[in-house]
Design goal:
Blueprint (H helix, E strand, L loop, with lengths): L1 H30 L3 H18 L5 E7 L9 H4 L2 E7 L5 E7 L1 H24 L3 H9 L3 H13 L13 E2 L5 E2 L1 H6 L1
Antiparallel strand pairs: 1-2, 2-3, 4-5
Helix pairs in contact: 2-4, 4-6
């Protein structure tokens, strides 16, 4: 029995650095982020994605999930909804909910990609080159990145379901396990 406890402890220790590292990055990135700056980043992503996909059939919209930012601990519980909408029909094609860490990662990805595309378009005189660069920034590609970020979070109990709740300690749980608990 003593060996089992030791093996289980070792398994926990092997997983801890990644979770701790992820949590440290979240704390570092969000530590000095004010609520107003956060809302500014949400608005900035909406502006960037609208500009980058103008003329395309899809559009991404970012919004703070209602009520998720009403706590004094908003950085831990806030959720950002990313919705992909078909502009011609107005139909929602996909929607994902991100925590602050995932949102910060996506924010970095999109702003760096957009700044590169905008820098190329301001220096290039060939309109075909500009359109191919903008085409590489489609809403569907960004939504794929959102899916990738949100799929990475798995329940630390069943290791199967997608985490619906992430505690301040960085443990993630799916709704099924929460209901059982």
């Amino acid at each position: 029995m003593g060996q089992q406890i030791s093996d289980q402890t070792q398994l926990v220790l092997n997983k801890l650095p990644e979770k701790v590292a992820k949590h440290i990055l979240l704390v570092r990135e969000s530590g000095s982020l004010t609520y107003e700056e956060f809302l500014g980043r949400v608005a900035e992503l909406n502006d960037i994605t609208a500009k980058m996909v103008s003329g395309q059939g899809k559009h991404l919209i970012f919004e703070v999930h209602p009520g998720s930012d009403s706590s004094a601990f908003w950085k831990v519980v806030v959720r950002v909804v990313c919705t992909k909408i078909n502009k011609s029909t107005g139909i929602v094609e996909a929607s994902r909910i991100m925590n602050l860490y995932q949102f910060i990662q996506l924010y970095k990805d999109i702003t760096s990609q957009a700044s590169g595309v905008l820098a190329m378009s301001s220096t290039s005189e060939d309109p075909d080159e500009n359109s191919s660069s903008v085409t590489s920034c489609q809403a569907s590609l960004w939504m794929g990145r959102v899916k990738q970020l949100t799929d990475e979070e798995e329940c630390c109990i069943c290791m199967d379901g997608r985490a619906d709740l992430i505690l301040p300690c960085a443990h993630s749980f799916c709704q099924k396990c929460i209901d059982k608990w």
